[in-house]
Design a protein that fits this description.
- About 35% of the residues lie in helices and about 20% in strands.
- The chain has helices spanning about 30-50, 110-115, 120-130, 145-160, and strands at about 10, 20, 80, 85, 95-105, 165-175.
- The chain folds into two domains: about 10-50; about 60-175, Tetrahydropterin Synthase, Chain A (2-Layer Sandwich).
- A hairpin with a 5-residue loop joins strand 1 (about 10) and strand 2.
- It has four helices and six strands.
- By secondary structure, it is an alpha+beta fold.
- The chain is elongated, with a radius of gyration of 29 Å.
- Strands 3, 4, 5 and 6 form a four-stranded antiparallel sheet that branches. A two-stranded antiparallel sheet has the order 1-2.
């Protein structure tokens, strides 16, 4: 009366009652939770690795070669700058950090090498401004616009008037 494929077996006891015996589940609930937690940790670790180690930075390649195209501008050139991480000023004294990755758009493609050579001076010009930001300064939709405009002014001060046409912000992470 027992089928090897079924999950339960039916038997009769000495008193004549029918007793149903079930097989234990293949995987216990505890084992399923542990496997799920391990998979979740692997996924979180992979996402964190991609966020904190973008392609190219592992080898120390901070400045990208000029790229053609983008934003509908034929022949546009971009200079990728290294990511900057700074402490933010907080009124309550808690440690807050800002990580920003940006790309410079030079006014002329012929000045790319000159701008790359002066990139440390540009990053140095951004440091005081970024360190003075407060977490409240990063709130709202206009925050990125204000930060871009201030960075553009400081980049042109460091390189010379009209050298940088635009600054493109890839990441602006507050932690």
């Amino acid at each position: 009366m027992s089928d090897p494929q079924s999950e339960s077996e039916i038997a009769e006891s000495a008193e004549g009652e029918t007793v149903v015996a079930t097989k234990p589940p293949r995987f216990s609930k505890k084992l399923k939770i542990i496997i799920g937690a391990v998979v979740l940790l692997l996924v979180i670790g992979g996402v964190a690795a991609v966020m904190f180690f973008p392609k190219g930075e592992e080898k120390g390649e901070h400045a990208a070669a000029p790229a053609e195209g983008g934003h509908g501008e034929a022949g546009a050139t971009y200079i990728e700058a290294p990511a900057i991480v700074v402490n933010l000023r907080g009124a309550d004294g808690t440690a807050r950090f800002l990580k920003i990755r940006f790309t410079l758009v030079p006014e002329s493609a012929g000045k790319v090498e000159e701008i790359k050579a002066k990139l440390p001076a540009v990053v140095d010009a951004f440091q005081p401004f970024l360190r003075e930001l407060r977490p409240e300064d990063l709130a709202g939709s206009a925050a990125v616009f204000r930060i871009k405009e201030e960075m553009l002014v400081r980049a042109n001060d460091a390189l010379g008037k009209g050298e940088i046409k635009d600054i493109l912000i890839q990441d602006l992470i507050q932690q």
